[in-house]
Amino acid sequence: MIENHFDEEKVRALLSYDALIPAIRQALMDFSAGRVQQPVRTIVPVSSHGGWFGVMPAVYGAVMGAKMVTFYPGNAERQMHTHMAMIQLFRSDTGEPLATMDGRLITEMRTAAVSAVAIDHLAHPEAKVLGILGSGVQARSHVKALARIRSFAEVRVWSRSPDHAQQFAKEIGARVTTAEQAVSGADVVLALTSSPTPVLSGRWLKPDAMVCAIGAATPDRRELDDEAMRSAVVVESREAALKEAGDIVLARAQVTAEIGELLNGAQIDRGGRPVVFKSVGIAVEDIAAAKLVYDKFTER
Questions:
Q1: Which of 101, 163, 172 lies closest to 141 in space, CA to CA?
Q2: Both 176 and 273 in a single domain?
Q3: CA 257 to CA 231: how far, in whole Å?
Q4: Which of 160, 168, 174, 200 is the most buried (most CB within 10 A)?
Q5: 1 CB neighbour count, 10 Å cutoff
Q6: Same domain, 268 and 287
Q7: Residue 141: enclosing H or E segment and its boundaries?
Q8: Concatenated DSSP letters for 205-235?
Q9: Strand, helix or coil at 99?
Q10: Which band of pLDDT confidence, cut at 50, 70 and 90, is reported for residue 3?
Q11: What is the pLDDT of residues 10-24, one digit of tens each?
Q12: Burial of 96 (0-12, 13-18, 19+ CB in 10 A)
């Protein structure tokens, strides 16, 4: 039996977007094709401290495992990460433990990799203008991941914190704007805030825009208004999105397709509407990423 512990720095040294993006693409295809055993995550509210604790198990090919994740929105004011996690990986044929990993960086990177897969498939091939709502950890990781699949001629940034927006824009060579200016005319929009109420209005979107909505992580929080959610809506998992995605639940939005279905060849009729990819994160993404880390380590 082999047991290893991978802290965040060890994960960082072993995990790259160049390997992660195709692995996530395959995991999403396998999920929608029924080749993954995975229940919807179990959430335990920690109401006394304004957070929640989640457990996300999956069986995927040669491995299985679970991520235990916490979400504490108030940590942002404490200059702490809002998401923290640990992942336990096992062999699926014998049940033997393989590794324990810090899951914060894996969560950060696989979330951005999922968006990169969705944008690569759903955004206009000639997309040149990127609007980013948010200036935190996910904004930075998304810029790194998207650089592997697209080149944008113009990047606009808005954040609820003007100082953070200025700092982030300077880092990536972007322009700070209002939220409306960031979205209007943009080919691709990233919604990456911790706002509990809408920051993106559907009337700002051009008809062929593609939106990645990432920030609202619970059924009582949303970043997009009702008009935006009348777009064609694509998700990772119908079951998870209809239970967990506030953008969908609160707008009573219809799910058009899973991204894995589209990657496997299904088509959607956008009907002249924007397309919204609403991501909540599913366990197979974490297990696929953890397996990459473990395989890279054992190759050494």
A1: 172
A2: yes
A3: 12
A4: 200
A5: 7
A6: no
A7: helix 137-146
A8: S-TT-EEEE-S--STT--SB-TTGGGSEEEE
A9: strand
A10: low
A11: 999 999 999 999 999
A12: exposed
Q: Which two tokens stand for residue 223?
A: 């970043």
Contact between 199 and 225 (Cβ < 8 Å) = no
Tokens, residue 79: 């200059």
Vertex 109 angle, CA 214 and 220, to 5°: 25
Domain count for the chain, please give it. Answer: 2
Is the domain of 227 the same as that of 293? no
Confidence band, pLDDT 50/70/90 cuts, at residue 82:
confident
Structural domain boundaries enclosing 91: 4-106+283-299
Same domain for 135 and 21: no
Residue with tokens 């998992």: 237
What are the phi and psi torsion angles at 37 (to 5°)?
A: -95, 115
Instruction: Look at residues 28, 58, 57 and name the one whose alpha carbon lies nearest to residue 42.
Output: 57
CATH number of the domain at 34, please: 3.30.1780.10
Sorted by sequence, the CB contacts under 8 Å of residue 13 that are 6+ apart come out as none
Instruction: Collapse the DSSP code of 14 into the 3-class scheme (helix H, G, I; strand E, B; otherwise coil) and give the result.
Output: helix
Q: 128 and 73, same structural domain? A: no
Tokens linked to 40:
């919807």
> How far apart are alpha carbons 295 and 287 in whole angstroms?
12
The per-residue pLDDT for range 201-247, each reduced to its tens digit, is 999 999 999 999 998 878 999 999 999 999 999 999 999 999 999 99
Is residue 114 a contact partner of residue 214, using CB atoms and an 8 Å limit?
Answer: no
| Contacting residues for 123 by C-beta, under 8 A, at least 6 apart | 150, 187, 188, 210
Give the bridge partners for 71, in sequence order: 52, 83
102 and 117 inside one domain? no
